[in-house]
Design brief:
Helix content of chain A is about 80%, strand content about 0%. By secondary structure, chain A is an all-alpha fold. Classes of the chains: A mainly alpha, B mainly alpha. Chain A: Keywords: Cell membrane, Membrane, Transmembrane, Transmembrane helix, Transport.
Chain lengths: ~270, ~325
């Protein structure tokens, strides 16, 4: 037993090393100068240089990217979760002809990945006049998050006992009142899971904003990081500082949501 | 918690969709229709308008030679498809996608299972370890690409570490050597996505009742035997879903490759998606690009159908099919 745990700890140590070292390279590299990095790529900061981080934090560019990403992610998440919850409610708590067909229709979307559809989507958005518009990114992201939202929410809403609904209706509530006052609050864990998924998808998405935005004032954070890297390719230290700061929102968000995500996924994988 | 709330209520009779007067019933049926329309229409519009329409439109564009501007006049039939399939670069790109997909299953799957089993044990600091393994997964592809691009510079961080531990001999031009670049990218992909597999498998492991392991142990099964014959079969559904997502992901690979290599050098790391982007947007061959998009879509679609039919059938109750 003791021996097995030793192996376990050794493996754990290796895993942490593989994962953390690249992140440390970025964070610590931001505290060095490019000259230091060039002469000794794997060295530690000595002395610590604060100017890289200070310049990035002091530049309006970084904050604008952050704001653009946040705006788009919030719109996309809200749209996907609100419309997805409404559809999931209809598909779980109403009995009507063609219900399963509707559901199958939405699940079809799981096979249409956003990446594949981007070129036609771009042409379509151009026709709709949505280029250079945050909505041109947020709306398609919401549309592509819809299937997974419905697939996770429907079984969850189905599992809420019918007695609750009967009682609410007996008490004179309308069916939509039951949805709003009882079903949605009870579905909170699943709603959090789908929100996290939609938000992270939008936050990290690269290809669609790359096409929709030409004007760099509209760029999102992933575009900004890639652009900053190619624009300042001689200034490694500053790229590292910029990249390190741009990791913070996603990592923070993740630390807050991690536990719920594992719980929510358990439900979805097991049906 | 919920069941407690229910049992404290006095038992009530199930609700009355009782036969009411004809008028009320019809009114309530109309009302139900209206409610359904209100609930379903917005989602349907969004889904059809931004998921289905663009793909349908692409199929239409793919029959034309079109630079993206002006009317569609130059009808070429299936020429775009023939051109794509007969081109070396596109064939190469499909091959690269398949190599990545195969490597994912052969390398990442055992690694994910091992890590998940490890993280499921009672190690000290386990929750921190979980966080650490998942961390790269939440970073965007763009950030991941930039980090590794810098670390893999010739004479950079990776090279210096390798030399430091006496492996200077294996140092290569990681991103500039056509025979190496695809495998370098695979390592980066693994670094980024291993956490996702581990999340899924950990969730699956929570569904393995501890009694089963105890029973196996009582019957004299060793740790390895228990894992092999009790735990792994129960993880089957999770593993099959992971394989599905992983293959689909490999077929669509774009962001990491585009930022790190642009599909180069000399198309040695091109994928179907980078090829699509290169032609559709960089060279304004929108008709041709649409054809490539349709091909990519059909490949994913056919794979998904077959996989669903033959591997996922039993598992997907509620997850990927309509059957609850």
């Amino acid at each position: 037993m003791a021996r097995r745990n030793t192996v376990g700890y050794l493996a754990a140590f290796a895993v942490i090393g593989m994962t953390v070292v690249p992140l440390l390279f970025v964070v610590l590299g931001g505290f060095r100068t490019t000259a230091q990095i060039n002469s000794s790529p794997a060295g530690l900061p000595g002395p610590f240089v604060w100017s890289n981080y200070a310049e990035v934090v002091g530049s309006p560019q970084f904050w604008r990217l952050l704001g653009n990403s946040a705006l788009i992610a919030v719109i996309a998440t809200t749209l996907a979760v609100v419309l997805g919850a409404m559809a999931a409610f209809a598909l779980s708590r109403y009995a009507f002809k063609g219900r399963e067909a509707f559901y199958a229709f939405f699940t079809l979307g799981l096979l249409f990945p956003l990446g594949v559809a981007t070129l036609p989507l771009y042409l379509w958005l151009r026709q709709l006049g949505l280029l250079e518009n945050p909505l041109g990114v947020a709306i398609p992201e919401a549309a592509f998050s819809l299937p997974v939202t419905i697939v996770i929410l429907r079984p969850f809403m189905n599992a809420i006992p019918g007695e609750l609904e009967d009682a609410a209706l007996l008490d004179g509530a309308a069916k939509l009142g039951f949805f709003w006052r009882i079903l949605l609050p009870l579905s909170r864990p699943a709603l959090i899971t789908v929100s996290v998924l939609a938000f992270v998808t939008s936050w990290n998405f690269y290809l669609l904003p790359l096409l929709v935005f030409n004007d760099s004032t509209n760029f999102t954070l992933p575009l900004g990081v890639a652009m900053f890297q190619s624009e300042h390719s001689q200034d490694t230290a500053k790229i590292l500082a910029f990249t390190a700061l741009s990791m913070i929102p996603a990592l923070t968000f993740f630390v807050l949501a991690e536990r719920r995500m594992v719980g929510g996924l358990t439900g979805s994988v097991k049906g | 918690m919920m069941s407690a709330a229910i049992t404290t209520r006095p038992p009530t009779a199930p609700v009355p969709h009782a036969p009411a007067a004809g008028g009320t019933r019809r009114r309530s049926r109309v009302r139900t229709r209206l409610e359904l329309a209100f609930l379903l229409t917005p989602a349907l519009l969004l889904f059809v308008g931004f998921v289905l329409v663009p793909i349908g439109v692409a199929a239409y564009y793919s029959l034309y030679s079109w630079n993206g501007f002006g009317p569609l006049t130059d009808f070429v039939g299936l020429d775009n498809y023939v051109d794509a399939f007969s081109g070396d670069v596109f064939q190469g790109a499909i091959g690269h996608n398949l190599i990545i997909a195969t490597l994912s299953i052969v390398v990442q799957l055992p690694l994910s299972i091992g890590l998940a089993l490890l993280l499921n044990r009672k190690l000290r600091g386990r929750s921190v370890l979980r966080m650490v393994v998942f961390a790269p997964y939440v970073l965007s592809e763009a950030v991941t690409a930039v980090i590794w691009l810098l670390m893999l510079q010739p004479g950079g961080f990776v090279d210096e570490i390798l030399r430091g531990v006496g492996l200077g001999g294996v140092v290569k031009l990681w991103l500039a050597d056509p025979s190496v670049v695809l495998y370098t990218l695979f390592v980066v992909i693994t670094w980024k996505y291993i956490g996702f597999g581990v999340i899924l498998l950990l969730a699956g492991l929570q569904g393995v009742p501890p009694e089963l392991r105890e029973a196996a142990a009582l019957d004299g099964a060793g740790a390895w035997q228990t894992t092999r014959h009790v735990v792994l079969p129960l993880l089957g559904p999770t593993i099959r879903i992971w394989v599905f997502l992983s293959v689909i992901g490999s077929l669509q690979l774009f962001d990491l490759v585009w930022i790190m290599t642009l599909g180069g050098p000399a198309d040695a790391s091109s994928t179907m998606a980078t090829y699509l982007f290169d032609h559709g947007f960089k060279r304004y061959e929108f008709g041709f690009g649409s054809a490539v998009a349709v091909i990519l879509f059909v490949i994913c679609f056919v794979f998904a159908l077959f996989y669903q039919r033959f591997a996922l059938r039993r598992d997907t109750a509620g997850a990927l099919t309509g059957v609850r």
